[in-house]
Specification:
Strand order of the largest sheet: 10-9-12-17-14-15
Number of helices: 5
Structural class: mainly beta
Oligomer: single chain
Distance between the termini: 47 Å
Strand content: 35-45%
Number of domains: 3
Number of strands: 30
Bound molecules: CU-O-CU linkage
Largest sheet: 6 strands, mixed
CATH architecture of the largest domain: Sandwich
């Protein structure tokens, strides 16, 4: 079926933590923005009208591969131009993958101002369908009282030479701090969880109830028992849980922001958000236990339901060394291989579509986009070495990836010759994965999706400070695809390319 939506994006007011009323970016006058539902196989058409009045925008469908429709992926300067103030853009693509996703603005650091929501793709062939009665959507996020344009300006500035990220004012569940989820006794629920945060990972648990993980980032898994999950920004988990057989008590659902991420912890910060599984509205809503009562689940142990074996015969090795450093202007930036990403004036997709044979030469994309050219069908092994004392959740557009190795803290750079890491035979696949402080990870994916795909830290502060690489996948196949060649001509005309040094 075709699902058509009209999205008028505009400012409304929101006060999700009950402390501070502020402007937020809503859709059709609504905020929180309701979850978007489609069925696997549907074509989604979203007519976006930018009614913000003071900011450009765009939307990204986080986790969707956009196979054949890289031009619908959403990042500005990559696959499209900004949707100007008063302008419109139609996203039109077929959704061929089931699971739990989200959509968010992919313009500058905009989505923490509220322009994000869960995106659920229902599946008639869901392998666990007969194991649950009802479905519940649960989003998490961090929340700032200040608006992003001001926060971003002071984040990247001489007055913040260490690059300390603004600390959120509070944590939210379904965009509130008073969430009550009514449940019935003796039932099993599928709980679809999304962390839509700008920055903070959260520890998540439901007191008195075990969870069975059955999906991560759109990949069904063999059921695995968890008491507590650690969800980085942009990660998703679906879990099954079964309610008690009686209604004698209600139970807290907890989210707790990972304070290790924060350079300094402001006085009075409450890192927690509590909601409740409500069996009986007339009974108490008890307080939660301490975080330390639980062990976080290790997602590295997950096995995909399809048991896809590890991809062998690597054709292409990519190594990205991450560091943070100051540039001549005194501000702090993030680097891959000594390059801090600067968005090109002309979207990378337009360059790939219009440069003929030379589209396979990374130099034409501009060195500051950190371009890597992938040949169609090759197996790519991506090694990331984190030469920074922070945790970073990395996301790849257009694909998920197998996670072969994920080191502990301070393991240093990966060295294939000396590594004694055990590689799982059927590795976990997901689209967002955490690298530990001073550690590394090794991922593999197959270049089976021609397009322009970003790989970046999903901490919105680090997107702005340049922690991004660009995969230009099979550019010649893109040129002969159905993607309209004039897709970006208008904005390219407004931003003539600057010749790049070879
Ligand atoms: Cu959730 Cu580059 O995106």
């Amino acid at each position: 079926a075709t699902v058509t939506k009209e999205f008028n994006i505009g400012w409304v007011y929101g006060n999700p933590d009950g402390v501070f009323n502020r402007p937020v970016m809503g859709i059709n006058g609504q905020w929180p923005i309701p979850a978007l539902f489609v069925k696997k196989g549907d074509t989604l058409v979203v007519n976006v009208n930018n009614q913000l009045g003071n900011e450009t925008t765009s939307l990204h469908w986080h986790g969707l591969y956009q196979n054949g429709t890289t031009n619908m992926d959403g990042p500005v300067g990559v696959t499209q131009c900004e949707i100007p103030v008063g302008g419109s853009f139609t996203y039109n693509f077929t959704v061929d993958q089931p699971g739990t996703y989200w959509f968010h603005s992919h313009t500058r650091g905009q989505y923490p101002d509220g322009l994000r929501a869960p995106f659920i793709v229902e599946d008639d062939e869901m392998p666990f369908a007969d194991m649950y009665d009802e479905e519940i959507i649960l989003s998490f996020s961090d929340w700032y009282h200040d608006l992003m344009p001001g926060l971003l300006a002071s984040f990247i500035s001489v007055s913040n030479p260490t690059g300390a990220e603004p600390v959120p004012d509070s944590a939210l569940m379904n965009d509130t701090q008073n969430l009550e989820i009514p449940v019935l006794p003796g039932k099993t629920y599928l709980l679809r969880m999304v962390n839509m945060a700008a920055f903070a990972a959260q520890y998540v648990w439901i007191e008195g109830h075990e969870m069975q993980v059955v999906e991560v980032d759109g990949v069904y898994t063999e059921p695995a028992t968890a008491n507590m999950l650690y969800m980085t920004a942009a990660q998703r988990y679906s879990v099954l849980f079964t309610t008690k057989n009686d209604t004698s008590a209600n139970f807290p659902i907890m989210g707790s922001m990972d304070q290790d991420l924060f350079d300094a912890i402001p006085d009075g910060l409450n890192p927690n958000v509590t909601g409740w599984l409500v069996y009986d509205g007339a009974k108490d809503k008890p307080a939660a236990q301490e975080l330390d009562a639980f062990e976080p689940f290790d997602d590295f142990t997950l096995v995909p339901h399809d048991k896809e074996p590890v991809y062998e015969n690597v054709n292409h090795n990519v190594q990205l060394d991450l560091k943070m450093d100051n540039l001549g202007d005194g501000a702090n930036y993030a680097f891959f291989n000594d390059i801090t990403y600067v968005p090109p004036k002309v979207p990378t997709l337009y360059t790939a579509m219009t440069t003929g044979e030379t589209a396979t030469d990374p130099a034409i994309y501009g060195i500051n986009t950190n371009p890597f050219i992938l040949a169609q069908g090759e197996v790519v092994e991506l090694v990331l070495n984190n030469d920074d004392p922070g945790k970073h959740p990395f996301h790849l557009h257009g694909h998920n990836f197998q996670v072969l190795i994920r080191s502990d803290d301070d393991a240093g750079f990966y060295d294939a010759a000396t590594s004694n890491a055990t590689i799982p035979a059927t590795p976990m696949r997901r689209d967002t994965v955490l690298v530990r402080p001073g550690g590394h990870f090794v991922l593999r994916f197959r270049a089976d999706n021609p397009g322009i795909w970003l790989f970046h830290c999903h901490i919105e502060w680090h997107v702005t400070s340049g922690l991004i690489a660009t995969f230009v996948e099979a550019p010649l196949a893109l040129q002969s695809s159905n993607i309209p060649h004039d897709h970006l001509a208008a904005c390219a005309a407004n931003n003539p390319p600057t010749p790049t040094a070879g």
